Each structure stands twice: as structure tokens, then as C-alpha cells.
Amino acid sequence: MPRKPRKPSSLCIHHVILRGVNQQIIFEDQSDYLQFISILKHYKERCDFKIYAYCLMSNHIHLLLEHTTTDLEIIMKKIEVKFVRWYNRKYQRTGYLFQDRFKSEPVNDMRYFQTVFRYIHQNPLHAGLESVPGTYPWTSYHDYVTSDFSFIDIDKILTLFPSHSDCIQYLHTISDQNCMEYYSSFRLPDSEALKIIQEKTSCNSPSDFQCLDLSTRNQYLHSLLLSGISIRQLSRLTGISRTAISNALKTTHT
């Protein structure tokens, strides 16, 4: 079956998501995040596109882009290919890193532009990786706070607010509105999640998790997250707080 054409944007602005194949971890350490950002900068100059927001999560990426002279498909292909080649050399692996082709949704008005802008920056918050917007390091939030020597095109966003501080306040106003929700098509029913937990761990109940030593518990949690169980669902089924699960994910990557 042929692929459906992407929906065009009257503003040439798209919200883009790249996912790791089989929800694989994309970023193993700090240098991986920095390399992807470097590639974004590299092709931004060469492909004449604007970037208004980004968020690099462990196994997926959000971008808010405006393309002009270069087609979005070409831009993303160049970014993906360059990063995958670098990643495969570094980790001595072969094959795909990203799942299928990237997902995208058109942004056709400035109101939704604002909504996507906030949604991308609050992605770590809703994933349980931060308790306050802006504390997670791998987003463009920090470019809007400092606004010095940034490769992010912050001016277009800032014109939508009375002041710079109003823009930052908007990012701190918690919203549950989803934009092309990443997890929706992958959410597991609790029965299947419980089966995975029992297969991958020695635990059959939340109380079993409470008796584990910290190292074993963190290794189990990391494995379960890679199996497709969300942080929220894992917290609910194991009785472990989302903050503790997020910390476990960080610990296993250091």
C-alpha cells in the first residue's frame, strides 16, 4: 500500500516526531544528545529551515520546524542519515535506528503554533523526567530563557507574547493538551504490561519491588521501560513513584 502524502501546512510549519525503532534508546549519553544538536545546526545552515523548538527524549525526538526552499522530507532524511551513520560508528552497530519514516503534523495557525511550542517543552514534565518545566537539559527551553547566541529562531515565538517573561510564564503553565501524542499508539493494556513485568523480573506484586535492592530495582525498571511500558503505567503497577523511575532511567545511563 502506498504511503499517504503528508498534510501540507499553510505556514510551512510542522511538528515532527522521530522514534527509535521498537522504542529503542536513541541517546545513550551526553555526547549523543550534543551530536544530534550539532547536526541540527549543521543542516539548518545548509537547508535553509527555521527551528522554533526541540526536545530530545531518550527514545524519541520532537521538532518544530519551518521549511522554505528545502522540502521537509529532504531535511529530515539528511538529519537522520548523518546521525545514524555517526551513531552506528560510535556503537559499532549496523541497521536502522529510527522507526519507519518520521511522523509530522501541519501547523496552520499561530494559536496552535503556541500550543505545540508549549507541548514540546513540557514533554519531559509529562514523562516524569522533571517536576518543574525547564529543568530537563535537552530542550530548547534554555534558548528562550537566555536568548544569547542561540541557533533557535526565538523571535517568531516571542512576538506572540507581550514580553519575554510572559513567554516563559506560558511554558510554566501546565497543559494536558496533546499534540500528535507519541504514546497513544503504543500504550499497553495493564494486563499485557503485568505479563511483561512478570516475565522480565522476579516480581509478581508491588510489594515485591519494595523488597529489591536499589541496583536490581533500577535495572528492572530500565528494562521494563524499554519494553514499551510508560513511566506513568509502570508507577501505577509497581507502586514506585514516577520520580524514582525517572531517576532509575538516568542512573542506568551514567
From TrEMBL:
Pfam families: Y1_Tnp. It comes from the Bacteria. Residues 9-123 form the Transposase IS200-like domain. InterPro entries: Transposase_17, Transposase_17_sf. This is Transposase.
